Amino acid sequence: MKKTAIVALAGIAAVTVALSGCGRTEPGAEGGDDAAGFAADASIGVALPDRTSENWVLAGDLFENGLEEAGFEGDVQYAGSSNAVGDQQQQIQQMIDSGVEVIVIGAADTNQLATQLEAADAAGITVIAYDRLIQNSDLVDYYVAFDNFHVGELQAQSLLEGLEEKFPGEEPWNVELFSGSSDDSNSAVFFDGAMSILQPAIDDGTINVVSGQTTVQQTATEDWAAENAQNRMDTIITSSYQGVELHGVLSPNDNLARAIIASATGAGFPVPVVTGQDSEVASVESIVAGEQYSTIYKDTRALVAAAIDMVSELQAGEEVTTTGESDNGAVEVPANLLEPVIVTQENAAEAYAENPDLEPLTQP
Amino acid sequence: MTNDVQERRGFRASDLSMLAGKKGSLKEFGILGALVVIVVAFQIATEGTTLSSNNLINIIQSQSYILILAVGMVMVIIAGHIDLSVGSVAAFVGVVVAIAMNDWGLPWFVTILIGLGLGVLVGAWQGFWVAFIGVPAFIVTLAGMLMFRGLNQIIGQSRGIPVDREFVNLLAGYLPEVGPFTGYNNLTLLLGALAVVAVVVLELRGRAKRVRLGAAVPPMWVAVTRLALVAIVIIAAALLFASGREGTSFPNAGILFVLIALAYAFVTRNTSLGRHVYAVGGNRRAAELSGVRSRWVDFFVMANMSVLASVAGMLWIARAQASGPADGGGWELDAIAAVFIGGAAVAGGIGTVAGSIIGGLVMAVLTNGLFAIGVGSDWIPVIKGLVLLIAVAIDVINKQQGRFSFIGLMLRGLRRGRSNDLS
């Protein structure tokens, strides 16, 4: 009996001693925050949201290859779709703990990563917001994205051009508006960009939003889900388009554009003028076939390359290339904003000439 | 007469099962074993990252709200019901609390009371339909899942709403650094020491009581070995949690979770209310005939679940520092999976708080480890789905009488050994 107790106490003591070696070091031992540059083979974390669109999957592959080519060790992670924000928080924390130098974040929710940014800041890690600007935090170091306000402007312009082209002299054109998921800070930016062009046209009676739904909340499509867009379009057609022609729809991206076209044709309408974004394969085919009117080409290759260039500049301790600043509600984040390209049937071949996946689709 | 019960000497294989505890079932022992295997496997695969201080803190921070939901969910499931609304209820409470802080400017402690109050109201609403109208809980909470998700988005207008710093520090923060510099978070060490003392005192008092009553006690070496093992685990955990990066400790959310888990483990095992939940779930008619007010039991488990969901919702918005329209997505399924992996029966009547927590930890460590070794987010749900299926399948096979099963054989052998000893 006594023997057992002695053995037990000895075991406890052994574990205590064995583990007590792993305490913290004295505070203040850590290096400075933004010391110029870091090791050329440093490890770089890339946290992307769930795989809901082709673009994120492509971006992940490009990051993995591009970081490796640039000599870094890339750690690319996607969040799961059921609990995307929680997964991403955990993944970013793991990247911080594993000692990365830079974390590139395509946020699953642009409002809910503040705790992780604080941890990254405390560890002296540079945070680059990729494609989606993380909101209300002064700890976002850089932002790299396409100019999303300009995306909205281009969408609205192409909508008006398409209406002029397909329904000349039929003003006022009947138009419906869709915006993206409300937990994505870009949704409002696209929509505001588009409304900066469309609002004057609504005011002077050139276009008529028959349903009367013109705010970003009314037009939101939760989770960017095609199903939600299709349901909303079905409902609007039933309630507002009995005996009324539907001329055009502002759609924030391709996935929703195709759902909207499906809804309109399902209800027996001819295909309206529908905008889009992302240059998804199915939509490029649709544009070439003369159905969807336009899309936006944001070359993911160019964007990933810009992000990796930024990492390389940080590594070398050089000044980071930026084109301006973006307001995230807390600070003006230094940003490198790339120019988007509008694509219609007319310029598809030219716009996708450099893209090996899309170029063949534009050949007759 | 006190000498009727002799302390046995020497070793028997059946004594090993007693290491799981005098009340712990072998099923929990099995799932605990699975957890240990998973932890060790990932510890090797990640070359030591899994059991690093920062990663353990990360796991607790990112899973405490799911584990709290699992504690409530196991009682719902024991009573023979289900709750699909917990994620939406958490999101609904979260957005109201965030708005109360951000838009109405109320101090954080008032908003916590508002959150708990809302949890009680929502729970009373769902409990009312289940217990007194007799609508199946599946339907009531499916309705709740839809309604409270919608209410979250109506109230929050699908915005991200930031919360106060004090609120974040309390619910998603850490214990302060006090006392001399020891290389550890001193308060975490203190908590660990208190836990060891509590475990030893409870075990020895329980043993003394059983001896006094003339009940059988396991041999002393079993008790000492078990205490030593538990103490080693607690001390190791305390040292690890105390040695994370500067400013961290065992997370506040984890402390809250441990308190809730202890309280509910006590309620389910040692109070008449807890036993009534098992009785209603096991055989409703028999329980009613024995005087259990089954409707109030139903009302209690449903209401209680929503209150715990409100706690989970507040923990979440503190961790995310903002409420959002997609909060709580999929939480109900995580909590339900934890409960079933932990050995609860779909038909009700069977299940434990401890088992559900271990089940939740299995899923948590699995997710964390798969992230760490870089398994894609497309494969993780496939793996977790298989784990759930296999865990429950093993359980089902074990219960089928007369069918050969290696585990069943082992269990029977152990059980026989034990009953012989004690007779």
Which sequence of strands runs across the widest sheet of chain A? Answer: 2-1-3-4-5-12-11
Per the principal axes of the C-alpha atoms, what is the gross shape of chain A? elongated
> Distance between termini of chain A?
89 Å
H/E series of chain B: HHHHHHEHHHHHHHEHHHH
- For this structure, the quaternary state is heterodimer
Describe the structure.
The complex is a heterodimer of chains A (364) and B (423). Chain A is an alpha/beta fold. Chain A contains eleven helices and 13 strands. In chain A, strand 8, helix 8 and strand 9 form a beta-alpha-beta unit. In chain A, helix 5 packs parallel to helix 6. The longest helix of chain A has 19 residues. With 423 residues, chain B is mostly helical. Helices cover 71% and strands 1% of the residues of chain B. Chain B is built from 17 helices and two strands. The N terminus and C terminus of chain B are likely disordered. The chains are: A alpha/beta (364), B mainly alpha (423). The interface between A and B is large, with 57 and 63 residues.
Give the helix/strand layout.
The complex is a heterodimer of chains A (364) and B (423).
Chain A: H1 2-19, E1 43-48, H2 54-69, E2 73-78, H3 84-97, E3 102-105, H4 114-122, E4 126-130, E5 142-146, H5 148-166, E6 173-177, H6 185-203, E7 207-208, H7 226-240, E8 248-250, H8 254-266, E9 273-274, H9 281-288, E10 294-297, H10 300-316, E11 324-327, E12 332-338, E13 341-344, H11 348-351
Helix pairs in contact in A: 2-10, 3-4, 5-6, 7-8
Chain B: H1 15-18, H2 26-45, H3 53-78, H4 86-102, H5 108-133, H6 137-156, E1 161-162, H7 165-172, H8 186-212, H9 220-242, H10 252-270, H11 272-282, H12 284-289, H13 294-320, E2 322-323, H14 331-341, H15 353-372, H16 380-399, H17 406-422
Antiparallel strand pairs in B: 1-2
Helix pairs in contact in B: 2-15, 3-10, 3-13, 3-14, 3-15, 4-5, 4-6, 4-13, 5-13, 7-13, 8-9, 10-11, 11-13, 14-15, 14-16
